[in-house]
Design goal:
Layout (H helix, E strand, L loop, with lengths): L2 H23 L8 E7 L2 E4 L4 E6 L6 E2 L6 E3 L2 H26 L3 H34 L4 H29 L4 H27 L8 E6 L6 E2 L4 E7 L3 E8 L11 E5 L7 E14 L13 E9 L10 E4 L8
Antiparallel strand pairs: 1-9, 1-13, 2-8, 3-5, 3-7, 4-6, 6-8, 9-12, 10-11, 10-13, 11-12
Helix pairs in contact: 2-5, 3-4
């Protein structure tokens, strides 16, 4: 037999074996389990401002606990902005307190002098009225002179009352418009201070949960651009199972249902709750769709494990299949 014929025969046998495996094995070790894998959804931690990386508290593959500091970017410029915002806040508070205290002594002195002058005018108007009233009764003064004296006395009294109210308001600190404006400036300065402090905190982010550092992209001393991820982190609560369920039993795979799974080197009796079922089917392998090949149709299913301890992203798993209720 020629070598070419031997090669062709071997290729045909290999193709037949592969076809039989895909047709009857479905990519699984046996028909009692569904194949899948562990997937981690990473968070990408970055700095909101550019700067030099001055500290790196973790390395690739490290297991960290919630609250651990990942890295620190040079805070010099951000600290200066925070200090400026703090100074502006204190200055605004001082202005607000001054507005609440009312008029200054010099300003109060002016109003008091105006009140004294108004009292002098009122006393003069009283004296004039007391002089005109008897003369008017005796006919020595006209009615118009009496009315003029009464009106002058009323005007002087009203002026004294108005200036007195102004003085009392100044003493009580009733510069209301200035006080409100001062309080608005305080709130504005406090908001700027809060933003500066938050940005300073963002320069040294901490772990939001227990998890594992997937990768590190910068090392201490390197310049980190703003919003450029410094590392990727997979929290334990973002570890998922992904497996493929057959079309014939999809009615059993509803969100909230529980599945059992296992993996090499993992604990026993592992459970997971289904959180997602794909609305679109897939084929293994992609061949012509027909009634005879529907058993090759599978749907992607994702499930959240009851515990992610010991589970590694990329790790293969075996899931015990759920069976749809018979119709």
């Amino acid at each position: 037999m020629k070598p070419q014929q031997i090669l062709i025969g071997a290729l045909l046998l290999s193709a037949a074996g592969l076809g039989a495996f895909l047709a009857f094995g479905g990519g699984q070790e046996n028909g009692n389990v569904l194949s899948g894998y562990i997937e981690g959804e990473p968070l990408y931690l970055a700095s909101p401002v550019a700067g030099r990386l001055v500290a790196l508290g973790v390395q690739r593959g490290d297991v960290v606990v919630a609250g651990a500091t990942f890295f620190s970017v040079d805070p010099t410029q951000t600290q200066a902005a925070r200090d400026q915002a703090l100074a502006e806040t204190e200055a605004a508070k001082s202005l607000a307190a001054d507005a609440q205290r009312g008029q200054r002594p010099a300003e109060l002195g002016v109003i008091e002098a105006q009140l004294a002058a108004a009292h002098a005018v009122l006393n003069e108007a009283d004296t004039s009225l007391k002089r005109v009233e008897p003369l008017a009764k005796a006919g020595a003064a006209s009615r118009a002179q009496l009315d003029s004296a009464v009106a002058a006395r009323a005007t002087a009294a009203a002026n004294v009352s108005a200036i007195d109210k102004q003085l009392q308001a100044a003493r009580l600190g009733a510069r209301e418009d200035q006080a409100r404006a001062a309080q608005d400036r305080v709130r504005q300065a406090q908001a700027a201070l809060g933003a500066a402090e938050a940005r300073l905190t963002d320069l040294s982010p901490q772990s939001p949960a227990d998890g594992r550092v997937e990768d590190v992209f910068f090392q201490p001393g390197e310049w980190v651009p703003a919003n450029q991820p410094v590392l990727s982190f997979i929290p334990d609560d973002r570890v998922r199972l992904r497996f493929f369920a057959p079309e014939t039993d999809m009615a059993a795979y509803a969100v909230g249902s529980e599945v059992s799974f296992s993996c090499d080197g993992c604990a026993k009796d592992l459970k997971a709750k289904i959180t997602y079922v794909s609305p679109r089917p897939e084929f293994t392998p992609p061949i012509i769709y027909s009634r005879e090949t529907r058993d090759r149709m599978v749907f992607l299913v994702e499930a959240l494990p009851a515990t992610s301890k010991g589970l590694m992203p990329g790790q293969p798993i075996d899931v015990l299949p759920l069976k749809a209720a018979a119709k």
